[in-house]
Amino acid sequence: MRRTEKEQFLRETLGDEQPPAHLARTVIEEKLRSAILEGRLPAGIALRQQELATLFGVSRMPVREALRQLEAQSLLRVETHKGAVVAPLINEDATDAYALRILLESEALRQSIPLLTAEDISMARGYIEQLEVETDYSIMGTLNRQFHMVLYSKAHNTRLLKLVEDGLNEEERFLRFNLKQMNLGKVSQRDHYELLERAGAGDVEATVEALTHHLNRGVEAINAYLSVRKAEEAKPAAASRKRAVTQ
């Protein structure tokens, strides 16, 4: 993509409205995050600090901080000679990430469930009910994250909560994809109602068991996606070998 084409693409994708100086980092981070999660910024595209600073009419400092935050959420990664680029939809180590999520979120549940109030349970139920009628997969991904975070919200370990939220942010992009492509919405909703019922009853270990089952569905979806991706990537190589044999 030539420079002028990329500038036009970024302008159409992100807009070019100049944010107030004191909100620049937050606004730029949220614009980029939404565009990545919604697939409007494709994997592999480089996001250069000066290009973004010029687009939004700000210095490079808030852009640099926004990019760092997105890298911490695994939405960007730094590559040699390219700088920050949009990360792949799912990485090869995603199943390991889910195994870690099960450990972290299980502990968050153990800390949080005994302290959840009727208002917390009602709020979580509200997110599920919104998921029942929502058709925008971008909003569905956000509602899913909000539902889970309510159940973990009373955990007393703030560093644990930060790690849990980072994991949910990392998953949100793939979740939006697999809900749409793999028709997992209704299955996930059944899991959500089961989680809510057990959490509302204060049954810690039963809720942890339900969460583990729920997250393992994510592992299955990831393995299915990676299997298809490997098969697609193998097709050009097989075709090339076939041409070499026939020449």
Automatic annotation (TrEMBL):
Molecular-function GO term, any one: DNA binding
PROSITE patterns reported in the protein's UniProt record: HTH_GNTR
Key words of the record: DNA-binding, Transcription, Transcription regulation
Residue span(s) of domain HTH gntR-type: 22-89
Any Pfam family matching the protein: FCD
Keyword check for DNA repair: no
InterPro entries to which the protein is assigned, alphabetical: GntR_C, TF_FadR/GntR_C, Tscrpt_reg_HTH_GntR, WH-like_DNA-bd_sf, WH_DNA-bd_sf
Tree of life domain: Bacteria
Protein name: Putative D-xylose utilization operon transcriptional repressor
